[in-house]
Each structure stands twice: as C-alpha cells, then as structure tokens.
Amino acid sequence: MTRKTLMLIPAALLLATPLAAQDAAIDVNADGMYSFPELQAVMPDMTEDTFTTLDANGDGLLDADEIAAGTDAGLLPASDG
C-alpha cells in the first residue's frame, strides 16, 4: 500500500453517509458534478488532498465516473441503492 493510500484511509472511514443519499444536498448548483466546496459542506472531513486524488481528470469537479471510482476504491461511501 502506498503512503498516499494509507493517508486516505482515515478520510474514507469518516465518510459514513452514502453519496447517492445526499446527491441533492451535495450538488447545490445541479450541474451533475461535485466541487470541493459542495462535497466539503456535507463531509467536513474531506481534505483538498483527498478531493484531488479523486479528481482523476484534474478539472476541479468530481463527475459520475470519478465518484464511482472513488466508491469502488473505498475512498467514498457506497450507495445504498
């Protein structure tokens, strides 16, 4: 396991509520993507480093594919539906 992965494990454990259950609460501008401020508003323990790791294409937003990859990697909570 890399150092970066080990650093992300505590952050992932703090993200207890599934993202799908919070979708409307997170995506306040309804653009279909999550910005760091949107995500941090509902997940205060989200760090910029974790967000940057999740933001695979580096555009400053998490799209559905990046959220799915983060969930599959255990860095984001899984959907309960």
UniProtKB/TrEMBL annotation:
MF terms in GO: calcium ion binding
EF-hand domain location: 48-67
InterPro entries per record: EF-hand-dom_pair, EF_Hand_1_Ca_BS, EF_hand_dom
Residues making up the signal peptide according to the UniProt record: 1-21
Keywords: Signal
Coiled-coil annotated residue ranges, if any: none
Keyword Methyltransferase: no
Alphabetized Gene3D superfamilies for the sequence: EF-hand
Presence of keyword Signal: yes
Transmembrane segments: none
Taxonomy, superkingdom: Bacteria
The protein's name: EF hand
Organism: Cognatiyoonia koreensis
